[in-house]
Amino acid sequence: MDQPAPLDYRPCVGAVLFNRDGLVLVARRANFPNAEGAAGGWQLPQGGIDGAEDPRVAVFRELEEEIGTARAEIIAEHPDWLTYDLPPALVGKALHGRYRGQRQRWFALRFLGEDGDIRLDLDPHPEFDAWRWARLEELPELAVAFKRPIYEALARDFAGLAAP
């Protein structure tokens, strides 16, 4: 009997969006409404790359889709594609069942707008139901366990950008 082909990683982008005070935007997943302080309920904006879309274009599209604004400029790009594997219980269920995890290109961006520009209510099926500004070093403790190594890398590698 033939074994099914192993699942691949979904190509994605992620945004570490810094405000003028050097804080980063984190958003609470709408499917974790009671996770006010719990790890895993909060994350950075991220999403899939469409076909041959340039990651630099994709990150602005994802910001627009997820937080209602793309008023930002790229200030750094992580040099590596960062990957995570889904926990075994989620493989075949999460990410439409087509991927084993995600392969992500992360960008640091400076937010050029005002807090009022951030609108989670523009999407009829929003991914997030709340947002706030957080310190960069808080990211790992906010992340779900299987994404924590990526958030640790981002907190370490973008630390020099956190100053106002």
UniProtKB/TrEMBL annotation:
<feature type="short sequence motif" description="Nudix box">
    <location>
        <begin position="47"/>
        <end position="68"/>
    </location>
</feature>
<comment type="similarity">
    <text>Belongs to the Nudix hydrolase family. RppH subfamily.</text>
</comment>
<feature type="domain" description="Nudix hydrolase">
    <location>
        <begin position="8"/>
        <end position="156"/>
    </location>
</feature>
<dbReference type="GO" id="GO:0006753">
    <property type="term" value="P:nucleoside phosphate metabolic process"/>
</dbReference>
<keyword id="KW-0378">Hydrolase</keyword>
<comment type="function">
    <text>Accelerates the degradation of transcripts by removing pyrophosphate from the 5'-end of triphosphorylated RNA, leading to a more labile monophosphorylated state that can stimulate subsequent ribonuclease cleavage.</text>
</comment>
<dbReference type="InterPro" id="IPR015797">
    <property type="entry name" value="NUDIX_hydrolase-like_dom_sf"/>
</dbReference>
<dbReference type="InterPro" id="IPR022927">
    <property type="entry name" value="RppH"/>
</dbReference>
<dbReference type="InterPro" id="IPR020084">
    <property type="entry name" value="NUDIX_hydrolase_CS"/>
</dbReference>
<dbReference type="GO" id="GO:0019693">
    <property type="term" value="P:ribose phosphate metabolic process"/>
</dbReference>
<dbReference type="InterPro" id="IPR000086">
    <property type="entry name" value="NUDIX_hydrolase_dom"/>
</dbReference>
<dbReference type="GO" id="GO:0008893">
    <property type="term" value="F:guanosine-3',5'-bis(diphosphate) 3'-diphosphatase activity"/>
</dbReference>
<dbReference type="GO" id="GO:0034432">
    <property type="term" value="F:bis(5'-adenosyl)-pentaphosphatase activity"/>
</dbReference>
<dbReference type="Pfam" id="PF00293">
    <property type="entry name" value="NUDIX"/>
</dbReference>
<protein>
    <recommendedName>
        <fullName>RNA pyrophosphohydrolase</fullName>
        <ecNumber>3.6.1.-</ecNumber>
    </recommendedName>
</protein>
